[in-house]
Amino acid sequence: MTAAKRRAGSSSSTSTSNEQQSLQQQQQQQQQPQHLPRQDGDSQAQGHHEYQQLLQHPHHHHHHHQHYGVGGGGGNHPQQYHQQHSHPQQQQQQQHPHQHTNPHQATLRDCSVKLPLDILWLPKSAMRPVGPDASHTDCILVVGVSRPKLAVVFLTVMLISLFLTFHVLYDSAVYNIQAAQAVHERHRLSLAASASASALSGSSSASGASFSSSAFASSSNHLPAFVKPVPSANQISHPMVFPSSRVHFPKTSRRLPQALIIGVRKCGTRALLEMLYLHPRIQKAGGEVHFFDRDENYLKGLEWYRKKMPHSFRGQITIEKSPSYFVSPEVPERVRAMNASIKLLLIVREPVTRAISDYTQLRSHAATAILPLAERESSGSGAFASASAAAAQPPKMPSQSLLYAKLQAAHGYDNALVGGSGAGAKETKTKLSVAGRRQAGAGAAAGGTMTTTTPSPLASAAQMAAKSFEELAIFPNGTVNEAYRPLSISMYHVHLHRWLEVFPREQLLVVNGDRLIEDPVSQLRRIEAFLGIEHRVKSEHFYFNETKGFYCLRYDNGDRCLRETKGRKHPHVDPVVVSRLRRFFAEYNQRFYELVGEDLGWPEE
Ligand SMILES: Nc1ncnc2c1ncn2[C@@H]1O[C@H](COP(=O)(O)OS(=O)(=O)O)[C@@H](OP(=O)(O)O)[C@H]1O
């Protein structure tokens, strides 16, 4: 612009004193900052006036342009910019007062475009002298920015806002997709757990795995508080559109358990796990994995075990429960080998009540096993059907061998169930504990049925279902059948002793199962403190269900009670037998109290 003006001044071939004067004026203008009021402001005002006139009377300026050159005022308005640049043209017109405007030459009016922006079109001739070969119809776009720095700031803010908006949208999209995938995965796992539970229905493991695995199944899509389930997670099955390495979304993965509910069977292990699962920091394995107590699982290795665990977020605690861990001698050392600082939860109940509960479940399982067996036998296929005969059965009718296997595996007692060999399958198979040897001896001495042969499934089941608790727990001579598995499991001190040989006492918390039934929140508060998580499970998470006679759980999406296999009605047991057993257990209970350092106040009569 300045150079153009200079050129305009120096290249004029008809230099006159007026021109020189005009040139001097231009040079003075060049030396002045444009934003300052100009000394020849009158000329500018005149120019501005001319411009306004041009806009209103497009042909008028041709007759009056020679009068321009006086005026005053100044400012930063873009039009002033235009005026400054149009000055050379005015000079030219003043130099040739009689020269008419070339019809092909662009005028201010021709090049003026009315826009909401401060954008002006100027004739090219306004920028430099018109040469003989210059096109007079050219226009030059002049964009006036009155406050350049403000404009830069404005643009920068705009760009940053755009970037942040995109970032937030992108992150939230990624978060939602991943949360949906987590829900989907949870849903898939719960379906798988339900399917495996129903596949095993009719028989339960020694610790009631199949029954408890589907308990609360419908509630298993519980999510940590910071992940809101989306309504139709199943629809989101596509992979993420963008790789999320840049987004620090809390990812889930399967982790080995940091806490175990090791037992005791029939003391409320399932209720405890489900109640803990109300806590957003807790993740649970759906069913009982039996990794440490079953050799066939343990030999598969820790990676197999880890894959059985649920997805969890970092900071969550994964818990698995397999009640038979407590009574399996090899388990403590195996658990320590995996994680020496793992936290152990042991829930106990008054031993005689627990034994009766155990008996109730076994009898229930036996009864469900007898029905199809009896139907098979009455149909004439014999007690030990061949595999092909079994295969020929309708799909709903399990084969005898399968039923028998289920019966044994689920109860974990083998023949000892029927009345005898107290230490149970696991303990007799491995080295016998002191109590186990004592029990076996007592059982034999008392004339207990130390069955070593395998009875037919029907006979075994029928015996189980037919015998009363009194018959199984007390020999005819009045002595206690210590070898009866429901009783031997209730000798807590024997089993706990093994654990405390491997783990320090402070790594194990004893939960009072009777109190958990009556007042879950107080027990859960202790457990939360033990696990080092904040107190989150409150009374509003529970309501007492009169029909069931137990507390049930309140979830965001509805209320849930444990299945009917939890809280079965116990058979009436002769009070004399109950007293006898309580006296029997009094000594063992004292030993247990000593081990745990707490008197649980169980009745001794
Ligand atoms: N809230 C609630 N609802 C239902 N049942 C409850 C609850 N809290 C504790 N319990 C008691 O849990 C007993 C079953 O214990 P487990 O879950 O350890 O059984 S198992 O070993 O897993 O089969 C079960 O024993 P039984 O009453 O003998 O069936 C219940 O007494």
TrEMBL record:
Residues 1-105 are annotated as: Disordered. Residues 37-51 have a biased composition (Basic and acidic residues). Keywords: Disulfide bond, Glycoprotein, Membrane, Transferase, Transmembrane, Transmembrane helix. The active site is at 266 (for sulfotransferase activity). Residues 10-34, 77-105 have a biased composition (Low complexity). Disulfide bonds join 552-561. Residues 57-67 have a biased composition (Basic residues). InterPro entries: NST/OST, P-loop_NTPase, Sulfotransferase_dom. SUPFAM superfamilies: P-loop containing nucleoside triphosphate hydrolases. 3'-phosphoadenylyl sulfate binds at residues 266-270, 349, 357, 551, 566-570. Residues 257-366, 485-587 form the Sulfotransferase domain. GO terms for molecular function: [heparan sulfate]-glucosamine 3-sulfotransferase activity. Gene3D superfamilies: P-loop containing nucleotide triphosphate hydrolases. The chain crosses the membrane at residues 150-170. This is Sulfotransferase domain-containing protein. It comes from Drosophila madeirensis.
